[in-house]
Amino acid sequence: MTSIYVGTYTEPPAGAGPGVLLFDFDDASGVLALRSVFDAGPNPSFLALDADRRRLYAVNELDDGAVSAFERDLSTGELRFINRQPSHGGAPCFAGFDASGRHLLVANYGGGTAAAFPIDDEGGLTPASVVLDHRQGPRRRRIRT
Hints:
mainly beta
């Protein structure tokens, strides 16, 4: 049996989902069964599970984006909210870890920013240590007239 977490859009116009869903997937039969639903704040659309599977991180895809941290119960899969930080851009659309696993990296679709969040010893996110702004105007040499 494999546990699968799925993020959903919770707010219109994108959707009205319940938050983060936890499914049991039976590898042998291919059956997917809903086990639990968690309130992970608004629009927890992209999820990242750390290497030891003890913590789950969710971007909150909003105009003023955020990223949320959760402790994961290893026996039940239940999630406990740890904290939330602003993502430093709108519509965060990706979260992943640096090579050390000690920083959560977040990309924001709205505004083209990316941020690195140090992860404390309890799995919480501290304020972003780096925010990169990749906004650029049109590149004139690419535009054909």
